[in-house]
Amino acid sequence: xxxxxxxxxxxxxxxxxxxxxxxxxxGRTDLAADRAETGRxxxxxxxxxxxxxxxxxxxxxxxxxxxxxxxALRPDLRATTDPRLQELNFGCWEGMLWxxxxxxxxxxxxxxxxxxxxxxxxxxxxxxxRVAPALAHADAxxxxxxxxDAVWITHAGVIRAALWLRxxxxxxxxxxxxxxALTPGWGRWIALPVPATRFVGLQG
Length: 204
Prior knowledge:
By secondary structure, the chain is of the alpha/beta class. The chain has helices at 35-48, 61-73, 103-111, 124-143, 156-168, and strands at residues 9-14, 54-57, 78-81, 150-154, 189-193. Helix 1 packs across helix 2 (61-73) and helix 4 packs across helix 5 (156-168).
């Protein structure tokens, strides 16, 4: 990727491994994160983040645990909880095993990926609608004269939304086939250059 005009970045950090997550739909379900893995992730992040970085943290316990472990190592980092960084709300699917959700319900979501509300919760369009202003604010703050790198401690769905918005902007809605598939692993991150203007495509 090309560097940011101001040399600053947005760090999209995924929480450490959620306990009991295997095979389970758990967007807003507040699963705890593995404590040892959270500690290792915090140590790696503490070494990587530059001075002056500002943390925005999802309200989920698994993300707050990483933020707290990080701040114990880096007390210079300020953190603010931001509900816009919560994972997708899966409604009545929350906590269910994916294998227990009917094929018809899953197919209905795939067929109308952007606007269907799985489990009666949020749609992907809803997710994009709340992440877009958070992304715009982070970019504006980071580009400001007194700004520093922005750090989101968040979830895979929010990271996918941020990547989509970077590439496509808020007006274009995704299909199941072109929604970003890859996200950082548990306790890992991706650092994106902050664009000079509001929304730009990622460049290789």
